[in-house]
Amino acid sequence: MLAVPSAAQGAPAKPPPLTTPWTAQALNGTPLPEYPRPQLTRPDWQNLNGEWQLRQSATDDAPQFNTNLPERVNVPFPVESALSGVMRAPGDNRNYLFYRRTFTVPASWAGRRVQLNFGAVDYQATVWVNGQQVGGHTGGYDAFTFDITDRLNGGTNELVVKVWDPSDTRQNGSLPPIGKQTKTPDGIFYTPSSGIWQTVWLEPTPAASISSVDLYPNPSNNTIRVRVFTRGSVSGFSVLAEAMNGSTVVGSATGGFAEFSVPVPNARRWSPDDPFLYNLRVSLRNGSGALVDQTMHYFGMREITTGLVNGVRRPLLNGQFVFQTGTLDQGYWPDGVYTAPTDAALAFDLQKHKDLGFNMVRKHIKVEPQRWFYHADRLGLLVWQDVPSLTAQNIDPNAAQQAQFEAEATEIVNEHRSSPSVVAYTVYNEGWGERTLADTQRVGAGVKALDPSRLVNVHSGYNCCQSLGNPGNGDIDDWHVYLGPDSPLASSRIAVLGEFGGLGLHTPGHEWSPSGNFFAYEWQANATALTDRYVGLVAGVQNLMLGRGLSAAIYTEITDLEGELNGFVTYDRQVVKMDQNRVRAANQALIAASRALPALSPTTLPVNQRRSLQVTTPGYTNRYLRHQNSLAYTEVVTASSPALLKNDATYTIRPGLADASCYSFESVNFPGQFLRHANSRVQNSPNDGSALLRADATWCARTALTGSGVSLESWNFRGSYLRHYNSEVWLSNGAGGAAYNSPSLWTADSTWNIASPWAP
Questions:
Q1: Can you tell me the distance from the alpha carbon of 84 to that of 50, in angstroms, rounded to the nearest whole number?
Q2: How far, in whole angstroms, is CA 306 from its chain's centroid?
């Protein structure tokens, strides 16, 4: 039998392509020694991370028992990683992995059941203890547990795990959820992560024990709803749940195994600004009231809903709209691939979000270990959790593959119910693995039914790629626009920019690509240019928040990846590529602006009366909108100006040609001509009676973008406004791109005074 390795031993790591600040610490003692499940803790446990034996096979072999295997591997690092000590090539076709180690159960555990826990194994695992199969599991992103008590021998026990991970090979007709993993990494797709990639551990429990607890905060009445799930016979048992501020009990309740509520008096609300966590002690008691099992948990008192803010559908955190700004976080490492080298490394990317002024993170088509969610909970980040997708290749899943995708989505929702940071689930991304639009709608509705307490983004980036179109259901309407920014128009769902940006900068010595190729959506020459461009994009996002009702935006991305260099931080986490202070200031200004939104309510103008449109931008308030050779400009107008200029700068306000609740502006000296936009340029055009002219010449008056004056929104391009720029007049949403669409001064340039007419 293989001797049990001591805690300080491990297979030597291979040299990684890039070294992170934690690479050297990863194998110094037991890898990832922290208790892996912060939401359900017990004092006794045994970590099985460290050196295991390994055999790789291209064929579906039988497991070997009581036999040393030829290789060594450091669990829980995937075999493609340097920290695993194996570092096999991404395209390796040995898709069958056999792991082996021995363990002994502490004598103090006598009389209790022994649970064998796996954080995650990619993709299909079968487990034997002392030559007897104890169970199997399919799915690379969720945890699973086997009670192995009846297979233990009282001494040294042998544990064998067989894993099959076909990745994107289609082996045996497979089509597993894989996210960005591929056997041929290049561009926006990365090295696969095969085998055991999260902590393996043992835990003793009573015969009747707590298996999981679902927590649902209810801030509206200062309670936490609790539902306890158990193993073994619990006939006649009850549950005591105690809410605690630190170690002080602030509320308690007794219940059974249906949901019950625990009071949390004067509850402190959890938010990114104040991520306060309560503790929860759950005690399982038998019919006599004696303690049988006890676990510790935590919770945050927060609520995520949607509601109308100034007539716009917005996400509400604890009843308030705060713009959610974050990044795409894909969770790859040059030394550990899918597995962060240490717990401090796992927390680093989240802390960097906070340092950069973000309040949200989109975990992109990967599910992290439970400790990642704990770090998000304690740091105060809103998490949008993606369901890992099937292949991005245009391959439709069959019925069994679709059912497996849905089963894994269900497990992901069930495992993260109690994390206060998780506020949204994204089910599909850009059509990857999408079978039919009806399936997309059905699966999205199913996720919402599983957890009505969170938002559901049925399809992120349905406007992109191989998507089958807008599903129309769920809470979120999500576009991807590179570079962007841009936004769908808020309607019955909240408007979200699910991916944008992707600005790239080379950082020699801190980049690596398995293919040798590097990708970004737009390259920048240096850190200053990169920061300038990013700050400009954020200004555009802020204008879209005001004009089109945008409520969240996700920038690509927090770190560089293998062949993708569009991160705030290099792939090795050694260099912050932008000016962190300027980035933070821009993001915080965006969040602050969301707390003070102008109403943009409809406002009334004097119909059939003449008026002039005065510029409100400071320094230019002596200018007025006028037409010249049909085109609209702004020009200084004074009492001594020529009569022609005064006439050109005067319009008669008419009921809107396309909508009488809005307005059209008829030229005084060219009756029958109206102010309209055409290809974004504003001009005078004769009313030819066409539907297009009527639409283009109709403007809806809103209370001003700046809070004082009037802003004129296009009737047929909602979210775009009449704006002056360099003396010319344009239709603009202020998102950036063309010069006239510059984010700078957009709100002021798009605000007018309805002034007395220059030509009475």
A1: 9
A2: 17
Whole-number pLDDT of residue 8? 34
Q: Is 1's pLDDT higher than 80?
A: no
The answer to whether residue 238 scores a pLDDT higher than 70 is yes
Q: Where are the alpha helices (DSSP H) in 380-428?
A: 399-415
Read off the amino acid at residue 746: W
Token digits of residue 708: 């004082």
Within 10 angstroms of residue 89's Cβ, the number of other Cβ atoms is: 10
Q: How many CB atoms lie within 10 A of CB 446?
A: 15
What is the Cα–Cα distance from 73 to 373, expressed in whole angstroms? 27
Of 60, 98, 30, 338, give the one whose Cα is nearest residue 197: 338
Residue 517's φ and ψ, nearest 5 degrees, are -100, 150
The answer to whether 38 and 296 are in contact (CB under 8 A) is no
Interval 534-544: pLDDT, tens: 999 999 999 99
Q: 255 vs 236, 237, 247, 415, 750, CA distance in Å?
A: 11, 9, 21, 22, 59
Burial state string for 683-694 with b = 16 or more CB within 10 A and e = fewer than 16: bbbebeeeeebb
Which of 320, 315, 312, 324 has its CA nearest to residue 713? 312
- For residue 344, what are the contacts with CB-CB under 8 A and spacing of at least 6? 22
Q: Which residues contact 32 (CB under 8 A, 6 or more apart)?
A: 47, 49, 76, 199, 339, 342, 343
Exposure of 337 in the CB half-sphere (CA atoms within 13 A): 33
Q: How many CA atoms lie within 13 A of 322 on its CB side?
A: 21
3-state DSSP helix/strand/coil percent for the chain, to nearest 5?
15, 35, 50
Bridge-based pairing of strands 651-655 and 610-615 is antiparallel
Q: What's the confidence (pLDDT) of residue 5?
A: 38
> Which residues, in sequence order, are CB contacts of 452 under 8 Å at separation 6+?
none
